[in-house]
Amino acid sequence: MQELLQQWVFNPTVGKLAVALFGLILVAIVVRIVKESFSVYLKDNEVRYRVRKFINFVGYLAGLMVLATVYSDKLGGLTVVLGVAGAGIAFALQEVVASVAGWFAISFAGFYNTGDRVQLGGIKGDVIDIGILRTTLMEVGEWVKGDLYSGRVVRIANSFVFKEPVFNYSGDFPFLWDEITVPVKYGCDHRLARAILESVTQETVGEYVEQADLAWQGMLKQYLIEDTTVSPLVTLVATDNWMEFTVRYVVDFKKRRGTKDRLFTRILDEFEKTNHRVQIASMTVHLVETPVLQVRIAEKKEN
Fold this sequence. Notes:
Blueprint: H1 2-9, H2 12-41, H3 45-70, H4 75-92, H5 94-109, E1 117-120, E2 123-130, E3 134-140, E4 149-157, E5 167-168, E6 175-184, H6 190-222, E7 233-238, E8 243-252, H7 256-272
């Protein structure tokens, strides 16, 4: 029994396994200590997230180097084994392989980055983490109206970037065009209404115009795309019921709902100051209660 134990203890394979486990444990400890140390000094969430991701990546490389160093004399045979089993592994784990390929595409082809708002796999949300196999989103919308968080965290396989369109709301151009419609009664001063809408829109979203214009010039240099204006635009259409003004403007992709609230509030305030020269139009349907019908049936007298 003692001889068997000695053979087991001094077995080169067991020794290499012990060294490999010790090396991996040491790497894991060092990675954890470094991440906790940086987390104390880094206050910015985005910087802290990226540093932790980089440290994890360096830890994986260090672990692979430990294994390669310990089993360097076995790498030749390991290559042959992996070559034979490669086809079977690729077929059995094709979804995993596709997700890893998707991670490479996301990382190096610029599909999206953390912090971007995207629609992926039919789900819209903000990217809060990009892993090797899955992208994690904080969901936006669904039963919540407007571009507000629903509270659900969604994890989507990275392979979806090869299967479905990826809608990026904030990639190269971190602004969106949005519109509101304002119905105005016939007989009102349409010129004054247009002037009010142009003034209010410029006052509310004018801060975005200069930034959006710089971002759009960058888009023109990068893509074959037609030039357009990012300044607010007010247009008028005469309908059967009222004069319909459409206000088009650029806005930060995360501030659509709040911007609409400020626009409508200011528009209503300014319309009230015109002393009924400009009024919001609306269609009101009034249902009148049906009067009670009293029916009298005369009885025929018999002779």
